[in-house]
Design brief:
179 residues; mainly beta; two-stranded antiparallel ribbon; 12 strands; disordered N terminus
Length: 179
């Protein structure tokens, strides 16, 4: 009886490990990173609009790029400026070649990829105030027949100046794998 329980426990542990790692594949590739105009919300009601283009080398853990931001309160802009990507913190790879829409899966070019990328950024507002923070890009593209991890959504999250913009409002992002 103990042997049966031990075998069953081993099977369940192996299944849980395999299921848990299925959505967290990795890639050591280089990517171009595109963030179209996207809105992120904070719990205090502030909304941050950002756009960004850059590149990331996952194997070397490096990234660079530039972007713009506008900070809004109640629909009125209260600050704006630019930011530079200064490094890659982490990357969780979802796969390439397909995105799931409400109408079903849509095939994409094989080098169009998705994942969750956390970047270090340094921002400068129009009045010269500088801040550093983290910029998280989430793209829902995945391998054909697969899916992005449950609970994730397309968009950007930003944590800087003590304000956490952790709610995706709108956004279209893309990681293009380069040769």
């Amino acid at each position: 009886m103990r042997r049966t329980v031990a075998v069953l426990a081993s099977v369940f542990v192996a299944a849980a490990v395999m299921a848990g790692s299925a959505g967290s594949a990795t890639s050591k590739s280089t990517f171009q990173v595109f963030v179209d105009s996207t809105l992120s919300g904070a719990s205090n009601g502030l909304v941050l609009e950002t756009e960004m283009e850059g590149q990331a080398n996952v194997a070397a853990k490096t990234a660079s790029g530039d972007g713009t931001f506008s900070l809004m309160a109640g629909g009125s802009e209260i600050d704006h400026g630019t930011f530079s990507v200064t490094g890659l913190v982490a990357f969780q790879f979802y796969g390439c070649g397909e995105v799931t829409t409400p109408d079903g899966p849509v095939a994409l070019p094989p080098n169009f990829c998705g994942g969750r990328m956390i970047l270090r950024v340094h921002a400068t507002s129009a009045n010269g105030v500088e801040h550093s923070g983290l910029y998280e890009v989430n793209c829902q593209i995945h391998n054909p027949g697969g899916q992005a991890p449950p609970g994730t959504s397309e968009g950007v999250k930003v944590n800087t100046r003590g304000v956490n913009f952790n709610r995706h409002i709108t956004g279209d992002n893309l990681f293009v794998m380069t040769p």
